Queue: 2 jobs
Job 1
Amino acid sequence: MRSWQDDVRGALDGLAYGARSALSPSVLQGAAVELAWLTTHLAMYPLGLVGRAPALPARLNLAGLGPAQRGLLVSDVRAAGTPILLAHGIIDNHTIFALMRRHLVRHGFSSIHTFSYSPLTLDVRRTAERMGREIEAICEDSGSDQIHVIGHSLGGLIARYYVQRLGGDARVHTCVTLGTPHQGTMAAKLLPWPLVKQIRPDSDLLAELDEPAPDCGTRFHAFYSDVDQLIVPQRRARIRHPDLQATNVRVHGVGHLSLPFHGDVVHRITGLLADLDDTPRTA
């Protein structure tokens, strides 16, 4: 029977391995970028404590729009009008999506919403239930029968639980996750916090997500970084489930907090959501 000392030792070994593998020039450059984005995000963070970002209602006319916005609205009005819900990670807020939100708006997406939860949250399941209620309200207000969800870190796991275990696949067309511990992280063994315990590799929550999910129609795209400091080892941010339409996208040299800000990641997500092709995609 494993003791807590064994868990801590395993977590520290994993972190030490990550540190040893993080000494290449490209990784060090990524760390510098991460520090820069962290500084920017910390400056913006207090704005997220005031309240959620205002929702942008869907817009179906071309007045005052730039070329990129007009292009999406003309080429695919359904894609432009499909609501997008942004879900932040633990001990964070909607400001982590500031650049992504701006980029999506510039490219024609206008029905953009944020989902927030307290850092004192204790359970992924209950938070996923609340996400489901918010999604239903968004769909009712917008008149859309589907929505996209982009989740960073724990926000991605909350979204996946809603889709996979609460029938959310009927609403969520595409679920994008960024640095989400789909298979848990050894780093979570260092903290006894109830919510953090749920993202340990051997947690009941992750065991539940490993259960069959027949006929789940949502397409998943999991972005994971080879230098993610919080997902140990980094490959645990991939989705491995035989019933899910999941594509895992490896990003090189980008830290955990930088994923929602990274230009290439944001560009890929924009292109992905502009394409509502329902053809199943596999990893």
Job 2
Amino acid sequence: MAIKAIALDFDGLILDTETASYLSFREICQEYGHDMPLAVWREWAGGIRTWPLACEYLEGLLGKSVDREELHRHHRHIYNEMIAEWDVLPGVREVLDTAGRLGLKVALASSASAAWAVNHVKRYGLLDYFDFLQTRDNATKVKPDPEIYLKAVDGLGVRADETIAFEDSVVGTQAAKAAGLFCVAVPNHVTANCSFDHVDIRLSSLLDMGLEDIIHTLEKGNPVPQESDI
């Protein structure tokens, strides 16, 4: 077995949009005199129903419905101002540079729309690193279903067991493992306390372990301790 490709999630892995989305909605809840517990938001991370679930949660606190369209505009304004000042997460460029140097194929594997994920990839000057872009636009199901990853490896022309997925959320890692990929979990602020016992390697940052060391570890089948055990 030899690793021939890597596949990267976008939200929360390349850009920490998960944390930005949480902090933005928490600010809105505080405007209403309430809080948005991280423990609650964490349960929704990585999925596509975060927004309606958040609205339902706020409505439950208030005991009445809210203007969701106006709420979404307000949230998006706070959120966009926040991420406009943020760079990609530490280690992302290093992983992509190393993959290019090693001749690995690279896929984006995101449950987000192309208009969202791919446009941000372009904004950060990362598009040329990717050989294939897989988003929800051309998938019938999203994570934790494995379809996104199955389509990504098919688009790269490699096997699942020749590919390493990099993910930040439980639903993302579940999708990658269900598709048969190796999986490296790199939790962010929102997902840091989630259980990732099912992954092959867990890191606190993509800077913790170089891509070549990750590949060597997986190819040799050497166990890597979970972050909590280090």
